[in-house]
Amino acid sequence: MAALGANLAIAASKFVAFVFSGSSSMLAEAVHSLADSGNQILLLLGGRKSKRAATPQHPFGYGRERFIYAFLVSIVLFSIGGMFALYEGYEKVKHPHDLDSWYWPVGVLIFAIIAEGFSFRTAIKEASELRGTFSWAQFIRRAKAPELPVVLLEDFGALIGLLLALGGVGLALLTGSGVWDGVGTLCIGVLLISIALVLAVETKSLLLGEAAGAEEVGRIERALVDGDTVTRIIHMRTLHLGPEELLVAAKIAVRHDDTAAEVAAAINAAEERIRSSVPIARVIYLEPDIYSAEEAAAGPDPAATPGGPGPANDHSDH
Questions:
Q1: Helices 24-49 and 103-131, interaxial angle, to 10°?
Q2: CATH of the domain at 240
């Protein structure tokens, strides 16, 4: 919401500055801020749609709506923001003209830097609570909730873009050549496309389906095995159904002389331990089996998926 409010105000001021000055950098930045405003609306819409209840057609719910809308953000940023800036910059370099009323773009850019700084500061504060010990680059790569990384990259790109626009306008004023305004616009286009590509790669990975983080996987494994009723994990899979919803599927080893009632009680207890340790583990499927040391010693099957079920990975007697 902070990013949306800042971008709407900035977009309006940039369009006014463009009308009075004719600066292509200002027009590119205005379109950039307008695209960013649309992106924030998309993120809010995705968050709202993801809260819908599961249906027979979509039994695991709509948590991935947030990933889909974040991917749309990268497309909007690439097509509307980046490509438009490249086109406008090329036209300005090819057909340069002097800036009129230079104080308009300079004043608006300074205002925009302050407003974007406020939005960026808010995003950093929100993300710091979730980042933990990860670096910022690691946080952006590993975050399962797409909104904060998207806003962080958008705001960071906006601040750099504003500095590029300010540099282009400043050089155009100092040299008397409008070509520098076009060069600044081209740099803004390259910047926006680069950020859009990073967002596309990260959100594509989320759309394909990412496993839980190493820390969460460790907590699940420790919660599963109690050493008494569940003696070991034969194999396990995790999958994010949404940023705050995790699917856990595992084949677990139980004692060969346990009764059906004892196995059922062990599974129920294991599910409770997992949910207590990792609250976002909402969907859990546990399959009991008997562990076979002989098959485990046979080694992995090259044809099987990594750690998945197969002649050697599925170390069990049926």
A1: 30
A2: 3.30.70.1350
- What's the helix, strand, coil split of the chain in %, to 5? 65, 10, 25
Q: Is the dihedral of CA 9, 12, 16, 19 positive or negative?
A: positive
Task: Answer yes or no: are the C-beta atoms of 164 and 32 closer than 8 Å.
Answer: no
Q: Where are the beta strands (DSSP E) in the chain?
A: 230-242, 245-254, 281-291, 316-317
Residue type, 258: D
CB 251 within 8 A of CB 221: no
Q: Do residues 252 and 103 both lie within one domain? A: no
Closest CA to 5 of 31, 46, 40, 47: 40
Instruction: Identify each DSSP E strand in 193-244 by its residue range.
Output: 230-242
Domain count, the chain: 2
Q: Residue 276: which pLDDT band, with cuts at 50, 70 and 90?
A: very high
Parent domain of 88:
2-208
Structure tokens at 193: 């496309």
Query: How many Å apart are CA 233 and CA 225, to the nearest integer?
Result: 7
Tokens of 292: 């076979």
Q: How far is CA 269 from the centre of its chain?
A: 34
Distance (Å, rounded) from C-alpha 183 to C-alpha 103? 19
Its pTM stands at 0.70
In tens, the pLDDT along 230-257 reads: 988 988 999 999 888 999 999 999 988 8
